[in-house]
Amino acid sequence: MTKILLPTLILGSLFFASCTSDEDNNPITVDPVDVNAPATYTFERDGSSTVSFDGQTTRILMATEILSKFTDFDNSTEVSIQNMFAHVEGANDFSNADLNASNKNVRSKVAASQDYFSTNATGSAQIKTTFDGFISSQINEVFPNRNTVAEPGVAGQIADGTKTRYVNTKGLEYNQAFAKGLLGALMTDQVLNNYLSEAVLDEADNRETNNNDVPEVNANFTTMEHKWDEAYGYVYGLSANAATPNVTIGEDDKFLNEYIGRVNEDADFNTIAKDIFEAFKLGRAAIVANNYEVRDAQAEIIRAKISEVIAIRGIYYLQQAKAKIEDGNQTEAFHALSEAYGFVYSLQFTRKPTTNSPYLSGTEVNNLTSQLLNDGANGFWTLTPATIDAVSESIAAKFSFTVVQAASLD
Description:
By secondary structure, the chain is mainly alpha-helical. Helices cover 50% and strands 4% of the residues. The chain has a two-stranded antiparallel sheet. A two-stranded antiparallel ribbon has the order 3-4. A hairpin with a 2-residue loop joins strand 5 (156-160) and strand 6 (163-167). The model is unreliable at 1-24 (pLDDT under 50).
């Protein structure tokens, strides 16, 4: 089969180095000789698109509806949410008939990457159990107290400006822990440690079939092309236009897409959305060109940048909460702290470039989340600014930006 011709090319910015200065955090650099990135994420063979990531779009939609059920007090049960989480093909779990007909589910892909969990079934099971626990605890602890004003040691509702939040006995919102934790355990883990893994991209005869333009049966893409696109789908699967997703970055879902957009609004990190997108494009073009060195270099950039998004946003929410506590608004800090908790939890799914390791291990993450929930007898009710700063600095120390840079949009 004839090698495809790429669309109109961008020749000026084909490779993006990491903005970090720490040598350990820098992706590998290679000269992208003979690889030209198209202007948009558009790739074709014989006049038809080769880009496909339907499964990723489906799981993002599933995760979105699952999350909405955490505060559907009149209709949700533990069984109904767990059934959505571990959906079985044909079960009437969702409001969307296409999701009900799907053989996909969210739970099976949590902590399921090739590089981190193929030889760590115990760790994978423990993480899945954590998410099961967020669901059961919301139903069994928070739901019965939906009309109770929360206080230290008592789950219930708190006022946060004009909004009502629902927290456990320590002030944690389980829905936020679930959402931001899933951003790491599903989306980040699958992108960085599964679909961009050399073990997945180069599995079996993937290089041979890609070199010879042999598509999968009843498809228009090679297996390698499809694996790369599946990584892309976990970031841009709900984009208004997946070929030019940065036009609406931050608006398309409540997971990675949203927070890449939010971080990109910070003047200190305002090229991060472009860096991630351009690396995805150039890496995909490198697959078409059979240049696997350039492909792998782009994977390292994506790993570094998405990892930074999680760390930056975690620190941002911690510092937002600290400001509220210092202003005397302890309970108004709980929402930001709950979001921060999920982002800190997600740090164990990040990936330090050129390594097979996260920026923070599971043990380090558990230590940080424990500091947040056990600073005194009552969790967030007794959490101090000093502890928030200590956790923030522990995260920033693993990267090459400061707490101050991550804490504001200036």
